[in-house]
Amino acid sequence: MNREQISRIAHADHPIKSPLDDDSVRRLLERGVPRGDERVLDLGCGGGEWLLRALATRPQLHAEGVDISEDALAQASQAASHLGVQERLVLHHQEAADFVSSQSFDLVLSVGAAHAFGGLLPTLAAARKHLAPGGRVLIGEGFWDREPSQEAVEMLGDFTDLATTVDRVVADGWTPVDGHVSTRRELDDYEWACWGSLASWALDHPADPDSSQVLATANTRRSEWLRVYRDTWGFVSLVLRQTSG
């Protein structure tokens, strides 16, 4: 079973692929699209969950999503049709970093997808290219809540602490106008949901040739979380506006 299939199973009970609960997602979207008639772009949209939630509650909003996963985009399209918002959603199957549009957007999203651009600041640079005057960016990024082990750094990446992360964003020409630091409950709920969904799938499909691999993956990832990074890693979501220009 490939990584994409494993990810789809892992997120079956937590479709937002970041440690954020439904209330946090709703509030961040309220801050990102305060009028309700904005044009929204998600760079690395996956199954389009952020866009679908925005479209379902804002009948005048229009959205576009970009992702390299054909399967994820097909899921997004199917879900949009089910919700009756398909006419207001455009999906692009390509690398998010290569996406070009003749129109600008009032909100550019990239939550938990900084790896697609090579880090936080390159992600913001990509978002800036698509942003309308006075527009907002909603970005999600990991940080170290306390000093990590070398194993944790090698596993998750070379993040900074929360204050330094925000300082880097501000120095890059952005002003935070809202934000959310994921709570311990959100962080834990996300991990339990992902690895629990994988384990449940394996136990429910004992005859499947991938069952043992999926169960082993669930056990390994859960152990890594509990032993390596649970006490040190955090996640922050920021709503940003350009400081000038």
From TrEMBL:
GO molecular function list: methyltransferase activity
One Pfam family it belongs to: Methyltransf_31
Annotated Gene3D superfamilies: Vaccinia Virus protein VP39
Keyword annotations: Methyltransferase, Transferase
Cell inner membrane in keyword set: no
CDD domains found in the cross-reference section: AdoMet_MTases
Listed SUPFAM superfamilies: S-adenosyl-L-methionine-dependent methyltransferases
InterPro entries (alphabetical): Methyltranfer_dom, SAM-dependent_MTases_sf
Coiled coil feature spans: none
A GO biological process held by the record: methylation
Location of the Methyltransferase domain: 37-141
Domain of life (superkingdom): Bacteria
Protein known as: Methyltransferase domain-containing protein
Organism: Streptomyces antnestii
